[in-house]
Each structure stands twice: as C-alpha cells, then as structure tokens.
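> example.struct
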C-alpha cells in the first residue's frame, strides 16, 4: 500500500511518526528517510531509541529558498537511491519518506525516478510519502491520500516553534 500525507497544514510528519511508532510496536521493521532535513530534531532522537526503526537524513541543513544547489540535489538523489534499496531489499516492512513530495516539487530528483521507486514497492511493504504539494502522478498511485489543511495556526500570531512540539 502507498500512503500520501500532503497539504499545507501542520501534522504530515507527525502522522508518519505515529505510524512508525505503531508499526515498531507491532514488531514491524521501519525505515524513516528524511529529505531536506538534517539535524537533531526531537523526533529523530525519539525514533533512534526504537530498535526496529532505522533513521537516515538526506538534507544539507540549509533551508532552500530559491533554486536548489548541487549539494541539495546530490543529497536528495542519494536519499532516493537509499530508499530504493531499503524498499526492495527485504529488510523493511514500512518505508517512510518524509518531505518526499517537497523534494520532488523542487526538482531534487525527477518524476520518472520517483515513480520508478513507487512502482517497485513490493506488496509486502507499506510506503508513506509526506510533504506539501504532492504531484498528481504520485496521488494517482496512492492507495490512501490524507490532505492536511491549515484552518488556524498560532505561527500567524507570531508564536515561535517549540522544542518537542514543532521540532
């Protein structure tokens, strides 16, 4: 099965983290690959405490405000190759690719390569793709799509991100 968590609201990564926790609790082996992100976020610290979860980050630590550079493209393509190996290697039951949709939209890897990964997912593996702006081709392949919509957010009132809540 292929699940997509997209939309402009807060909670896409959080939903995927909940699924990772549930899967690990059920004895499943989870691969959690993050695109665009690098660093010691609280969720990464928590996941690393779970023996059935493998965490890998494929970001440079730089927020991409304009056209991505070669470093960001190389990191994302490395992540896509690692995800392909994880998905087809028989070692994992659940593959979560956080910010996959954003990496695809930014052109860090091309749609053809992304779709090849999606099409090669064995029936025994659950694939979860998160991030805003999921492409129509990705949505068409999905078995489940959740669009998380912002109705109201305290960021708009000037509140800062809080450790343990947003990061």
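> example.seq
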């Amino acid at each position: 099965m292929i699940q997509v968590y997209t939309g402009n609201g807060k909670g896409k990564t959080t939903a995927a983290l909940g699924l990772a926790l549930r899967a690990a609790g059920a004895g499943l082996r989870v691969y959690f690959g993050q695109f665009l992100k690098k660093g010691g976020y609280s969720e990464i610290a928590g996941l690393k405490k779970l023996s059935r979860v493998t965490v890998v980050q494929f970001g440079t630590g730089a927020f991409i405000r304009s056209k991505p550079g070669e470093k960001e493209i190389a990191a994302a393509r490395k992540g896509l190759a690692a995800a392909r190996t994880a998905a087809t290697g028989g070692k994992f039951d659940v593959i979560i690719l956080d910010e996959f949709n954003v990496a695809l939209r930014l052109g860090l890897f091309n749609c053809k390569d992304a779709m090849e990964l999606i099409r090669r997912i064995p029936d025994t593996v659950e694939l979860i793709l998160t991030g805003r702006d999921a492409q129509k081709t990705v949505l068409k392949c999905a078995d489940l799509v959740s669009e998380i919509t912002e109705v109201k957010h305290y960021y708009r009132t000037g509140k800062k991100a809080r450790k343990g809540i947003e990061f």
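> remarks
The chain has one domain: 2-157.
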